[in-house]
Amino acid sequence: MPKVGIIAGNRAFPLHVARAAKALGYEVTAFGIREETDPALEKEADRMHWVALSEVGRVPDLLKKEGIHEVLLAGQIRPDRFLKAETFDPLMGSLIRLLPNRRGDSAMRLAVQFLESQGFKVLHSGIFLKDWIPQPGVLTDRQPQPEEKIDLRIGLELARAVSRLEVGQTVVIRRGAAVAVEAMEGTDAAIRRAGEVAGPGCVVVKACGPRHDMRFDLPVAGLETIEAMRAAGALSLGVEAGKTLLFERPKLILAANAAGISVVAL
């Protein structure tokens, strides 16, 4: 039986990855980060190890003891955790000092480089959930209207530029103007802010920059995104085809249809 190690961040992504990997015949060992990872992951994994963020340097030795060679990073770590002073173990501390900044993507990129230097293969984070990554086209019953299509095109260009600068992945557009740009607050908070600023009629676009590393930062839209859009009166969601995970895709599309929201893979 093939083995995979899942280094798990927060929210539901690690749970879905573990469930899908086991369905494909993998033996799953999960490594949860205290105060980040959902404890429900213990029920999805075959084995579970818990570490504090400050002692993540222990994980490579634990992986080796488990005989694991393939690793997947699933879920986020709250960016503010990297802004706060923490006492790290010697290995983690030496890695933290190499960071050019305290952004979450910088830390994850360094983590990938370190794991590879230790002989582990770091997998694409969506490898077990390919059915949730859409190909180009309109995915919902409702088609975007002509003015929304214009905003989707503008939004895609702007979202790629913002992602290239490693600010965020999501922008909100209305009538060609940028209403909100995602930063540390996250996608759903940016959508809610756009609703407060511009009212109903916005479109939301999520995209990747050219340096985007799918091994640790696969863009995700979920049911919470649709709910935030419904509450803000947003009309269309554009995601980058082949590069975005639609969490629980069938449920997401049903929710979008019920809310009268278009979902388009651009």
Task: Detail the topology: elements first, then pairings.
Blueprint: E1 3-8, H1 13-23, E2 27-33, H2 41-44, E3 47-51, H3 59-65, E4 70-74, H4 90-96, H5 104-117, E5 121-122, E6 137-138, H6 146-164, E7 170-174, E8 177-181, H7 187-198, E9 203-206, E10 220-221, H8 223-232, E11 236-239, E12 245-246, H9 249-259, E13 262-265
Parallel strand pairs: 1-2, 1-4, 2-3, 4-5, 9-11, 10-12, 11-13
Antiparallel strand pairs: 6-13, 7-8, 7-9
Give your account of this protein's structure.
- The protein is an alpha/beta fold.
- The chain has two domains: 3-122, Rossmann fold, CATH 3.40.50; 130-265, LpxI C-terminal catalytic domain (Cytidine Deaminase, domain 2).
- It has nine helices and 13 strands.
- The strands form three sheets. It has a six-stranded mixed β-sheet. A five-stranded parallel β-sheet has the order 3-2-1-4-5, with helices on both faces.
- The model has no long low-confidence stretch (mean pLDDT 89).
